[in-house]
Amino acid sequence: MAKQTIGIPRGTRDFMPHEMICRNYIFDIIRSTFEQFGYLPIETPSMENLSTLMGKYGDEGDRLVFKVLNSGDFTPDINLNESPTKIASRICEKGLRYDLTVPFARFVVQHQSDLTFPFKRYQMQPVWRADRPQKGRYREFYQCDADIIGSDSLLNEVELIHMIDTVFHKLNMEVCILFNNRKILSGIAQYIGYEDKVIDITVAIDKMEKIGLEKVCEELKEKSIDETAIQKLTPILLLSGNNYEKINTLKEILKDSDVGLTGIDECLTILSYIEDKNLSPQCEVKLDLTLARGLNYYTGTIFEVKSKQVPIGSITGGGRYDNLTGIFGLDNMSGVGISFGVERIYDVWKELNQNQDVKSPVKIFFVNFGAKEERYCLQALYTLRKNGIGAEIYPEAVKLPKQIKYADNKHIPFVVLAGENEINQQKFTVKNMQEHTQMLLSLDELLNLVK
Hints:
alpha+beta; eight-stranded mixed beta sheet; 17 helices; 42% helix
């Protein structure tokens, strides 16, 4: 039998133990922050019915949904002349979730009688996208979402900005929180005379950073937006100055657009609260009129967070959606949320060498010299573990260099040796692997040292 070529699908990754320790550290910071702000955990299935997923993300998003082939013995009635989307709908009834927000909306509608509104939930699970893999873009990745639904107060947006700042401050990362408002974008579409093409406009300008202004203009022309309108739009996309200077210019441009002025007022309210919140010096908040967030369900404030230290794209995003649950039969249920992209956050963290500061969960390693020494060390091992300290012993009495190398490779900070002399004194020789020092300690002294 020929040897099988091994590997994993493109756009997915294996993680080594040290990487998982670092990732879990990031997860723990995000989870503890969610709970600190009053959010409660839920989970939803990896698969959803395609009817739940499709039509919520725009044409480009819908194409990236992984479809799950129907199982069982069946012969579908397929016309090969039909579009791939129609063929897929005949042979696939389910799909892997594209994000956590749409399944959350389905969850809220399905369980509405069991929830207390406003409902604040967090969710930390993988999602899948049939995207072209590249740096910072994967086909399988984790999202860490926090949403509050059942309230249209702008205080929720302010709290989410504060939450973003809290997480990245704990991770010692410098970030810029970019924000905009879909109502402003609707006002801009009115201003250039193409209110009916607001989705086409937002999808195009959302690619500004990736493809540049010239390509954005080309895409707008392909969507039948004329040159006069594009010339009116271009100065808005290139608007410079601080947040208030941009807003003052926008007020004049959108003075005849009620929806645009409403979006401006919402931005001003959020900015006024942020100034009172005293965000950390590592966090900058910036109005970005090219920020559109391509997903169709956003209706108000939208967010994206970029690292100021490593160019990698968005590491957090989100926004306000006024009637996502209405698609599933529950109207007038406004929500707002954010999603932390752990994969990219970890990639930034690794590039900044922050991962070097995360220590092994095992603090103490006992060298195994033989059966008698094993028994002596095991009692100490159990005591340390009962006190919440990670500890282990090598399972066999092999040569000392091999055991020391094992501890060193796992970045265990303390190595404990106990031979005949230590047993007679009821002590332990403790080597500090980082400082290259050693000392003779009792079990209580060892316990206090590690604590």
